[in-house]
Every structure is written in C-alpha cells, then in structure tokens.
C-alpha cells in the first residue's frame, strides 16, 4: 500500500495540484504557488485520513474503548487498514511538502518531523502491543492535531484568491484555537488511560511501547507550540482581511 499511496500523492502534487495552482493562482509568484499546491495536498491528505479513521470506528473507540477490548474480525480489519492508511498518508504528504518547498518555515518543519517520528513510533508500538485498543485510541487522539487542520488550508486558498470576508477568517481562527484545546484534552486523557497497556499489559515488554507512552506528552508540547504559531498567523490574516475589506468598502462608498 505504501508504494501505491506514495506514487498517488506524488502524481497529485506534481501534476494535479500544480496544474490547478497555475490555473487559479497564476497571479502569485512561483514561491507562493508552491505553497498553494502544498495547501491543496495537505487538505486532501488530512481529509482522507479523517474519513478513513471515521469509517474504521475510531470515534466510537475514543469514547467507548471497552467495546474494542476484543474486536471482532471486521473491526480488526478496518482498524489495521485505517492505521496503515493514516501512516502512509501522513508520511507521504509531509515528505512531499518538505521536498517541493525550499522555504518551509522552521515551525512547520518541526511539526512535520514530529508527526513523522510519532507516526512511525506509534505504528511500531501498536504492532508490538498486538493492536491493543488503548494504544490505538491514544494514537488516534493525538493524530487529530494533524487530521483536523482543513480550515487552515481552505482559509489560505481563499486568502490568496482575495476572498475577503472577515467573519469567516475570525471564525476559522477561533475554531482552530478551540479544536486544538479539545484535542489536547482528548490526547492527555487517552494517554493516561494508555498507561495500563504500556506498563501493565505490555505483552512484549518492549521499550518501544514504554517510550511511546513517555513521548506522547512531549509530542503534545511540540505540536501545540508549532500550532500556536499557526494561531498567530490565522489571527494576523483575519486582521489584514478586515482592514482590506474596510478599505474596499470605503473606496466603494467614495466612488458612489
């Protein structure tokens, strides 16, 4: 699956999203067009991850973990397929973005590499823990930091298309703040529940599993730090949009 997804993501980024960018954002300089194509790629990748995880029943597992202590064959198959898709999509999407953009800001580089390390480590721990439901649940919860950022990419596309509706930009910024806070609560809640899987039921007695449990709080700190810079950008963009909207309205009033 990894090879198929990697080739698919490359084709989308290199040809489809690049073509759409040239068609709809030709007014932007090349450096900005690269970022716009990456926004499209990330919007696609994160949306597919969220859809697949929802299909697999991870939201139900998040709030009703006891139902998945001994999953039935269908639940197991969906769980394994969705975890693999989550991993390969995050990995290929972020690697493509880093490969195509030579001017990625430092915070975003830190965000992407933290995600890549976390995803790789998490998949190894889940396998060693024999797909323990509490381990999978904690992994899904922290993955929501990445798979629920669609509003950021939509906002950036609208901004570069010069769609200036201030209330939408402020709503997007506040949604991002509140959703990050909710995900942090979910992640730490599921992390604490995961202690049983990591320290009591660790059938492999593996430091990969111990280490993941210890790493998740640090990953939360890193991801929240990097996404705090995104929050600053979102509110800054909203303020600029409001200013430009005011200038446009004033110009129209003067013209009339």
Protein described:
The protein has 256 residues and is an all-alpha fold. It has one domain. The protein is 84% helix and 0% strand. It has ten helices and no strands. It has helices spanning 2-24, 30-55, 58-63, 73-100, 106-128, 133-147, 150-160, 166-193, 195-200, 207-255.
Task: Offer a quick outline of the entry.
This protein has 256 residues and is mostly helical.
Classify the helix fraction into a percent range: over 70%
Helix/strand order: HHHHHHHHHH
* Fraction of residues in β-strands: under 5%
Give start-end ranges of low-pLDDT stretches. none
Helical stretch tally: 10
The tally of beta strands, per DSSP, is 0
| Classification by helices and strands | mainly alpha
End-to-end Cα distance? 60 Å
Shape: globular
C-alpha-based Rg, rounded: 20 Å
| Number of domains as seen in the coordinates | 1
Question: How confident overall, as mean pLDDT?
Answer: 93
Largest sheet: none
Keywords: Membrane, Transmembrane, Transmembrane helix
Transmembrane segments: 39-59, 79-96, 108-128, 173-192, 212-235
Organism: Polarella glacialis
Protein name: TLC domain-containing protein
